[in-house]
Design brief:
The chain is built from three helices and twelve strands, in the order E-E-H-H-E-E-E-H-E-E-E-E-E-E-E. The protein is mainly beta and about 210 residues long. It is a single-pass type I membrane protein.
């Protein structure tokens, strides 16, 4: 009877090596969203501490670690180039910051270098409300300084390009109280500034404007 042979499993290991030691700090760059395809994001030669000749000889490759290949590496210049125009909101949604992760692979010897590109928001969206008109029914005996919460506008832009203020059309009876939530998001409340008299003015038509940072 033939003796049973032990089974074997072969595992291939890829070891990431850095010239600066055990831990690799990523190379961090940034690019504004909507920048046209073919634009240069950064040059990596200085960070890699090699010249163009070595970059080409070591068959440098840029490998995306996130969905889609948004960038490419020019081995003849060391430039990271934008392949397609990036829509930050479509790519990252409400996530902030919006960061894309890649690695540069060099051969002979084998080395990996982490790349992080932060997509900067530009003011390419306007604030919007869920509908164009809102109806409030307010009793005429309502006391002065009564507050009425208003719907917040929606803006896909972030940071300095997000909603910064709300403006109410000029009138004697109502004013606006604009405040900030803990996350910095602005919201507004309508405040009664003068007693109402239905016989004098039965209806008000007011305009609320949301203003972003653009």
């Amino acid at each position: 009877m033939e003796a049973s042979r032990p089974s074997r499993q072969v595992v291939l290991f890829f070891i990431s090596l850095c010239s600066s030691g055990m831990w690799c700090e990523p190379f961090c760059y940034s690019v504004p969203e909507e920048k046209k395809a073919g634009s240069i994001v950064a040059n990596v030669l200085k960070d890699l501490k090699i010249d163009v000749k070595e970059l080409s000889a070591r068959r440098a490759q840029l490998i995306s670690k996130t969905s889609g290949q948004n960038f490419q590496l020019d081995p003849h210049s060391g430039n990271i180039i934008l392949r397609d125009k990036i829509d930050r909101e479509a790519l990252c949604g409400l996530s902030d910051p919006c960061t894309l992760f890649s690695e540069i692979l060099l051969e002979n010897p084998l080395q990996f270098f982490k790349i992080e590109v932060q997509v900067e928001d530009v003011n390419d969206n306007s604030p919007t409300f869920s509908k164009n008109q809102f109806l409030f029914e307010i009793p005429e005996q309502t006391p002065i300084n009564a507050h009425f919460p208003l719907e917040t506008a929606h803006d896909l832009d972030k940071g300095k390009n997000a909603i910064r203020n709300y403006i109410l059309s000029p009138n004697e009876y109502f004013k606006l109280d604009v405040q900030s939530q803990n996350n910095g998001k602005k919201y507004a409340e309508l405040v009664l500034a003068k007693p109402l008299d239905r016989e004098v003015i039965p209806q008000f038509i007011l305009t609320l404007e949301a203003v972003d940072g653009g």
